[in-house]
Write a structure and sequence with these properties.
CATH class of one domain: Alpha Beta
Mean pLDDT: 88
Helix content: 40-55%
Oligomer: single chain
Radius of gyration: 23 Å
Strand order of the largest sheet: 6-5-7-4-8-9-10-11
Number of strands: 11
Shape: elongated
CATH architecture of one domain: 3-Layer(aba) Sandwich
Largest sheet: 8 strands, mixed
Low-confidence stretches: 55-59, 319-329
CATH superfamily of one domain: P-loop containing nucleotide triphosphate hydrolases
Order of helices and strands: EHEEHHHEHEHEHEHEHEHEEHHH
Number of helices: 13
Bound molecules: guanosine-5'-triphosphate, magnesium ion
């Protein structure tokens, strides 16, 4: 349900505004006379299942750009407080270009830190099925393309088939996979990988609300000295994603990598999780393939993702994906 307030000089004029903006299905939630003798209406309309925003042609006025931005964020089911704060950040930019307003608001609200060559060792953490193992393989593939040496270590000795899956990806990449069952074994494996430019460590999917699960994961993180990188899938309930992000941030995660952007229509959980746990945004998973399944995020790329119709979303990232490829030796 989307709520909007309308003011006009009389009821008929206010109703006309409601119909023009929200369509014939809008319902009036409340109405009252204003101090000046006019009418204020609060109208509501069910949220549509398909996007109804259109960012082109460019809005004529800054106010129109903010309205369009709110429609976009509303479609992605952003919680009201975050939506309002992004709209307010956008309004200070006073631009009539919706995409730029959105990119500027995202830039002012989030820290973007794509995974580049600065990363020395990463431990991928997250709930079961988030995409940790595939993302580790994608990052290894990207590093191999950049002619960086990579070590692959998995600590997932719990899930049936996990070791085989990990070994399968490592074989595709021509890397000898290492398995560490305990924090001590992980330290040994990391010491043995001393020559690698990048060490990628996979972990068992954990229940973020289970103290034992989190304590075991915490031991691996502490022993590794690696950056714990939170992996969450797109399309989650926003509040659920925020709770999870806070739980993983308590273990030391400071960056969020969101997978399965290609299979989700609404991306509100990505923004909500990052904001709730103060996580920097890095790359996004945009497909199951190792070679082209990851793309770095920046404010404009994220604005394009949010504003594009779901079917065009991955294509909206082509520029960033190919520009990344062009930087590879
Ligand atoms: N379409 C698409 N599929 C993805 C993406 N990332 C991961 N997947 C798929 O999601 C599923 C789970 O991926 P995994 O990497 O095994 O997830 P995990 O977090 O390691 O899972 P557990 O080890 O069981 O906790 C697999 O089928 C992947 O191919 C993505 O960006 N897009
Ligand atoms: Mg896995």
């Amino acid at each position: 349900m989307r709520l909007k307030t309308f003011t006009a000089e009389n009821m008929a004029a206010a109703m006309k505004l409601v119909r023009a903006e929200l369509g014939a299905d809008a319902i009036i939630v409340s109405s009252f006379e204003t101090a000046g003798g006019g009418v204020e209406l609060v109208a509501a309309v069910e949220r549509s299942a398909t996007p109804d925003f259109d960012i082109a042609p460019l809005s004529a006025e800054p106010d129109d750009a903010i309205d369009a931005l709110q429609d976009i964020l509303d479609y992605h089911r952003l919680p009201a407080a975050l939506l309002e704060s992004l709209a307010s950040a956008a309004s200070t930019l006073e631009t009539d270009d919706t995409l730029l307003a959105l990119a500027g608001a995202l830039d002012a609200t989030f820290v973007f830190a794509p995974l580049g060559h600065e990363a020395r060792s990463l431990l991928l953490i997250g709930p079961p099925g988030a995409g940790k193992t595939v993302t580790a393989a994608k990052l290894a593939a990207r590093a191999r393309l950049a002619k960086r040496s990579v070590a692959l270590i998995t600590t997932d000795t719990l899930r049936t088939g996990a070791a085989e899956q990990f070994a399968g990806y490592a074989a595709l990449l021509g890397i000898d996979p290492q398995v560490a069952d305990t924090a001590e074994e992980l330290q040994d494996a990391i010491s043995a990988a001393v020559g690698a430019a990048l060490i990628l460590i996979d972990s068992t999917g954990v229940n973020p609300f289970d103290a034992d699960d989190m304590a075991r994961l915490g031991e691996f993180i502490a022993a590794s000295g690696a950056e714990p990188l939170l992996v969450l899938p797109a399309g989650m309930d926003a509040d659920e994603a925020a709770d999870m992000a806070r739980a993983f941030a308590a273990l030391g995660a400071t960056r969020l990598l969101t997978t399965r952007l290609d299979t989700a229509r609404r991306l509100g959980s990505l923004l909500t999780a990052a904001e709730a746990a103060n996580l920097r945004l890095c790359d996004v998973g945009i497909g199951p393939h190792l070679a082209d399944g990851l793309s770095p995020l920046n404010p404009l790329a994220l604005a394009r993702l949010l504003a594009a119709a779901p079917a065009d979303r991955v294509a909206s990232l082509t520029t960033t994906a190919s520009s990344f490829a062009e930087t590879m030796p």
